[in-house]
Amino acid sequence: MTDCLFCKIATGAIPSEFLVETEHVVAFRDIDPQAPTHVLVIPRAHFQDVAALTRDDPALAGEVLAVAAQVAKIEGLSEGHRIVTNTGINGGQSVAHVHFHVLGGRGLTWPPG
Length: 113
Ligand code: 5GP
Ligand code: ZN
Known about the structure:
With 113 residues, this protein is an alpha+beta fold. Helices cover 31% and strands 22% of the residues. It has helices at residues 5-11, 50-56, 58-74, 88-91; strands at 18-21, 25-29, 37-43, 81-84, 100-104. It has a five-stranded antiparallel beta sheet with strand order 1-2-3-5-4, with helices on one face. Helix 2 (50-56) crosses helix 3 (58-74). The structure holds guanosine-5'-monophosphate and zinc ion.
């Protein structure tokens, strides 16, 4: 999608530094970090949310989660971390290209606000 921020990041139209880059998935730091580690993991292809991703390409959903776990390892989050995907207005999704947040480096409260 030409008008999607994360498509532009994935294609390099908006230059970004990737922590992990595979054929189908990229990981990059959130512009407004909510924890010492706050990384976003996305498929390069555009899917609106986790429902669309798992419906249309469940294998890719597995690849995205594997990269999220890899990011946690790279960032040294052995004491724990959180992987979360927000969906829709009530879920707090502000970018309509599915993404998984990898958060860690401090104690995270539960439940979230
Ligand atoms: P959501 O609210 O949709 O779950 O998460 C979107 C995330 O994208 C937010 O945490 C926000 O800080 C991040 N974000 C928004 N614009 C940019 C950007 O241009 N670059 C990066 N790296 N992150 C962004
Ligand atoms: Zn997109």
